[in-house]
Design a protein that fits this description.
The protein is mainly β. 12% of the residues lie in helices and 38% in strands.
Length: 112
């Protein structure tokens, strides 16, 4: 694995946000949801697509805080323009488990 510098790490804007809306994404090639995440007043609401249907239902995602990369360029995913990469870890089957703070955190807070 290649080492990176602290300056490299600081370029990645990892922020916490709260999922405020979720919809099924039937047009996706693999099962996915459309997510709207509130990153607070400075950053605002961002939309994303996430392949997290194996571990999460729509109802349990509303109000969940997640860690997202907010400074990637927008990416077209089918009919959706993704504005944030919601982060997670693959389980033993390759299904994504969300990376989340373990306590309530202000929306927009930066990962250090």
């Amino acid at each position: 694995m290649e080492e990176i510098s602290w300056a490299d790490f600081e370029k990645v804007a990892l922020r916490v946000g709260t999922i405020i809306r979720v919809e099924d994404f039937p047009e996706a090639r693999k099962p996915a949801y459309k997510l709207w995440v509130d990153f607070g007043p400075e950053i605002g609401e961002r939309k994303s697509s996430a392949q997290i249907t194996k571990h999460y239902s729509v109802d349990e995602l509303i109000g969940k805080q997640v860690v997202g990369v907010i400074n990637f360029p927008e990416k077209q995913i089918g009919p959706v323009i993704s504005q944030v990469l919601v982060t997670g870890f693959a389980d033993e089957n390759g299904d994504v488990i969300l990376a989340v703070p373990d306590k309530k955190t202000p929306n927009g807070a930066k990962l250090h």
